[in-house]
Amino acid sequence: MSRVGKNPVAVPSGVTLAVDGRKVKAKGKLGELTLPLSVLVDAGMQDGKFWVKPVNETKQARMMWGTTRNLVRNMVRGVSQGYSKSLEINGVGYRAAVQGKSLQLQLGYSHDVNFPIPEGITIKCDKPTSITITGADKQRVGQVAAEIRSYRGPEPYKGKGIKYDSETILRKEGKKK
Protein backbone atom coordinates (compact mmCIF):
# COMPACT_ATOMS: atom_id res chain seq x y z
CA MET A 1 0.00 0.00 0.00
CA SER A 2 1.20 3.47 -0.85
CA ARG A 3 1.52 5.60 2.25
CA VAL A 4 1.89 8.74 0.15
CA GLY A 5 -1.05 8.02 -2.14
CA LYS A 6 -3.48 7.71 0.77
CA ASN A 7 -3.15 11.40 1.61
CA PRO A 8 -5.29 13.78 -0.46
CA VAL A 9 -3.75 16.88 -2.03
CA ALA A 10 -5.03 20.09 -0.46
CA VAL A 11 -5.90 22.73 -3.06
CA PRO A 12 -5.10 26.27 -1.78
CA SER A 13 -7.23 29.28 -2.59
CA GLY A 14 -6.40 30.84 -5.95
CA VAL A 15 -5.72 27.46 -7.56
CA THR A 16 -8.27 25.59 -9.65
CA LEU A 17 -7.75 21.88 -10.17
CA ALA A 18 -9.93 19.97 -12.63
CA VAL A 19 -10.03 16.40 -13.91
CA ASP A 20 -10.93 16.36 -17.61
CA GLY A 21 -11.09 12.79 -18.87
CA ARG A 22 -7.58 11.34 -18.44
CA LYS A 23 -5.95 14.75 -17.75
CA VAL A 24 -5.55 16.87 -14.64
CA LYS A 25 -5.34 20.63 -15.16
CA ALA A 26 -4.03 23.04 -12.54
CA LYS A 27 -4.40 26.78 -13.00
CA GLY A 28 -3.04 29.47 -10.71
CA LYS A 29 -1.37 32.86 -10.62
CA LEU A 30 1.91 31.53 -12.09
CA GLY A 31 0.41 29.67 -15.05
CA GLU A 32 -1.35 26.52 -16.11
CA LEU A 33 -0.04 22.94 -16.05
CA THR A 34 -1.53 19.66 -17.28
CA LEU A 35 -0.75 16.08 -16.36
CA PRO A 36 -1.91 13.03 -18.32
CA LEU A 37 -3.27 10.36 -15.97
CA SER A 38 -2.24 6.72 -16.18
CA VAL A 39 -4.93 4.12 -16.88
CA LEU A 40 -3.87 2.43 -13.63
CA VAL A 41 -5.25 5.18 -11.36
CA ASP A 42 -8.54 7.02 -10.84
CA ALA A 43 -8.63 10.62 -9.67
CA GLY A 44 -11.22 13.13 -8.55
CA MET A 45 -12.09 16.09 -6.36
CA GLN A 46 -13.95 15.76 -3.07
CA ASP A 47 -14.50 18.47 -0.41
CA GLY A 48 -11.88 20.78 -1.93
CA LYS A 49 -9.23 18.05 -1.89
CA PHE A 50 -7.81 16.00 -4.73
CA TRP A 51 -7.55 12.24 -4.26
CA VAL A 52 -5.99 9.42 -6.29
CA LYS A 53 -6.88 5.73 -6.05
CA PRO A 54 -5.45 2.68 -7.84
CA VAL A 55 -7.74 0.84 -10.28
CA ASN A 56 -6.57 -2.60 -9.09
CA GLU A 57 -4.07 -4.08 -6.65
CA THR A 58 -1.20 -4.80 -9.05
CA LYS A 59 2.29 -3.65 -8.17
CA GLN A 60 2.38 -1.22 -11.11
CA ALA A 61 -0.95 0.36 -10.10
CA ARG A 62 0.24 0.86 -6.52
CA MET A 63 3.48 2.48 -7.77
CA MET A 64 1.55 4.87 -10.01
CA TRP A 65 -0.79 5.71 -7.12
CA GLY A 66 1.85 7.51 -5.05
CA THR A 67 3.67 8.88 -8.10
CA THR A 68 0.54 10.48 -9.54
CA ARG A 69 -0.40 12.00 -6.19
CA ASN A 70 3.04 13.62 -5.84
CA LEU A 71 3.04 14.87 -9.44
CA VAL A 72 -0.32 16.57 -8.81
CA ARG A 73 0.98 18.05 -5.56
CA ASN A 74 4.01 19.44 -7.42
CA MET A 75 1.70 20.97 -10.03
CA VAL A 76 -0.45 22.65 -7.35
CA ARG A 77 2.60 24.08 -5.59
CA GLY A 78 4.12 25.16 -8.90
CA VAL A 79 1.15 27.22 -10.07
CA SER A 80 0.71 28.80 -6.63
CA GLN A 81 4.30 29.36 -5.35
CA GLY A 82 6.65 28.24 -8.12
CA TYR A 83 10.01 26.51 -7.98
CA SER A 84 13.52 27.91 -8.20
CA LYS A 85 17.08 26.62 -8.44
CA SER A 86 20.23 28.62 -7.84
CA LEU A 87 23.57 28.04 -9.55
CA GLU A 88 26.99 29.45 -8.63
CA ILE A 89 29.86 30.03 -11.04
CA ASN A 90 33.42 29.69 -9.73
CA GLY A 91 36.54 30.44 -11.75
CA VAL A 92 38.61 33.37 -12.97
CA GLY A 93 36.83 35.06 -15.88
CA TYR A 94 33.75 32.82 -15.61
CA ARG A 95 30.52 34.83 -15.73
CA ALA A 96 26.92 34.83 -16.92
CA ALA A 97 24.53 37.48 -18.20
CA VAL A 98 20.98 37.45 -19.53
CA GLN A 99 20.72 39.08 -22.95
CA GLY A 100 17.22 39.15 -24.41
CA LYS A 101 15.86 35.61 -24.55
CA SER A 102 19.19 33.86 -24.02
CA LEU A 103 21.71 33.32 -21.25
CA GLN A 104 25.26 34.16 -22.26
CA LEU A 105 27.92 32.17 -20.40
CA GLN A 106 31.67 32.80 -20.44
CA LEU A 107 33.20 29.59 -19.13
CA GLY A 108 36.82 29.60 -20.26
CA TYR A 109 36.14 28.27 -23.75
CA SER A 110 37.35 30.08 -26.87
CA HIS A 111 33.73 31.14 -27.49
CA ASP A 112 30.75 32.26 -25.42
CA VAL A 113 28.02 29.70 -24.75
CA ASN A 114 24.51 30.97 -25.55
CA PHE A 115 21.68 29.09 -23.84
CA PRO A 116 18.19 29.92 -25.19
CA ILE A 117 15.73 30.46 -22.32
CA PRO A 118 12.71 28.11 -22.77
CA GLU A 119 9.06 29.22 -22.49
CA GLY A 120 7.73 29.30 -18.94
CA ILE A 121 11.20 29.65 -17.38
CA THR A 122 12.68 32.87 -15.98
CA ILE A 123 16.42 33.26 -15.51
CA LYS A 124 17.99 36.10 -13.49
CA CYS A 125 21.63 36.94 -12.93
CA ASP A 126 21.84 39.20 -9.86
CA LYS A 127 25.63 38.95 -9.90
CA PRO A 128 27.81 37.77 -12.79
CA THR A 129 28.59 34.63 -10.78
CA SER A 130 25.07 33.61 -9.73
CA ILE A 131 22.15 32.32 -11.79
CA THR A 132 18.58 31.90 -10.48
CA ILE A 133 16.14 29.78 -12.49
CA THR A 134 12.42 30.03 -11.64
CA GLY A 135 9.25 28.55 -13.10
CA ALA A 136 6.00 26.73 -12.36
CA ASP A 137 7.02 23.27 -13.61
CA LYS A 138 9.38 21.55 -11.17
CA GLN A 139 10.72 19.11 -13.76
CA ARG A 140 11.52 21.82 -16.33
CA VAL A 141 13.24 24.06 -13.77
CA GLY A 142 15.46 21.16 -12.70
CA GLN A 143 16.17 20.15 -16.30
CA VAL A 144 17.20 23.68 -17.31
CA ALA A 145 19.48 23.93 -14.25
CA ALA A 146 21.07 20.57 -15.11
CA GLU A 147 21.64 21.61 -18.74
CA ILE A 148 23.31 24.88 -17.72
CA ARG A 149 25.47 23.02 -15.17
CA SER A 150 26.53 20.50 -17.82
CA TYR A 151 28.33 23.17 -19.88
CA ARG A 152 31.11 23.26 -17.30
CA GLY A 153 30.61 21.02 -14.28
CA PRO A 154 32.68 21.69 -11.18
CA GLU A 155 36.09 20.06 -11.15
CA PRO A 156 37.52 18.55 -7.94
CA TYR A 157 40.95 20.25 -7.78
CA LYS A 158 40.18 23.99 -7.74
CA GLY A 159 36.37 23.84 -7.73
CA LYS A 160 36.08 25.77 -11.01
CA GLY A 161 32.83 25.45 -12.94
CA ILE A 162 29.08 25.73 -12.41
CA LYS A 163 27.56 24.14 -9.31
CA TYR A 164 24.26 24.17 -7.50
CA ASP A 165 24.03 26.67 -4.64
CA SER A 166 23.60 23.93 -2.02
CA GLU A 167 26.11 21.51 -3.59
CA THR A 168 29.45 20.81 -1.91
CA ILE A 169 32.36 19.75 -4.06
CA LEU A 170 34.64 17.05 -2.69
CA ARG A 171 38.10 18.51 -3.22
CA LYS A 172 41.12 16.43 -4.13
CA GLU A 173 44.70 17.10 -3.20
CA GLY A 174 46.92 18.23 -6.07
CA LYS A 175 50.27 16.83 -7.20
CA LYS A 176 53.05 16.41 -4.68
CA LYS A 177 56.74 17.02 -5.43
- Biggest sheet strand line-up: 11-12-7-13
Task: Say which CATH homologous superfamily of the largest domain is assigned.
Answer: Ribosomal protein L6
> What is the rounded distance between the termini?
59 Å
Mean pLDDT, all residues = 93
| Unreliable residue runs | none
The SSE string, one letter per element, is: EEEEEEHEEEEEEHE
Shape: elongated
By CATH reckoning, the class of the largest domain would read: Alpha Beta
| Alpha carbon gyration radius | 21 Å
Q: Strand pairing plus helix content: what structural class?
A: alpha+beta
Number of helices: 2
How much helical structure, as a percent, in the residues? 10-25%
Major sheet: size, sense and barrel closure?
4 strands, antiparallel
Strand content: 35-45%
At a glance:
With 177 residues, the protein is of the alpha+beta class.
Main attributes?
alpha+beta, Outer Surface Protein A, domain 3, 4-stranded antiparallel sheet, structural constituent of ribosome, single chain, RNA-binding, Ribosomal_uL6_bac-type, ribosomal protein, 2 domains, 3-stranded antiparallel sheet, 177 residues, 2 helices
List the SSEs and their pairings.
Elements: E1 9-10, E2 16-20, E3 23-28, E4 31-36, E5 41-46, E6 49-54, H1 59-80, E7 83-90, E8 95-99, E9 102-106, E10 113-116, E11 121-124, E12 130-135, H2 138-150, E13 161-164
Describe the structure.
With 177 residues, the chain is α+β, with helices and mostly antiparallel strands. The chain has two domains: 9-80, Alpha-Beta Complex (Outer Surface Protein A, domain 3); 83-162, Outer Surface Protein A, domain 3 (Alpha-Beta Complex). 20% of the residues lie in helices and 38% in strands. It contains two helices and 13 strands; from the N terminus they run ββββββαββββββαβ. The strands form four sheets. A four-stranded antiparallel beta sheet has the order 11-12-7-13, covered by helices on one side. A three-stranded antiparallel beta sheet has the order 1-6-5.
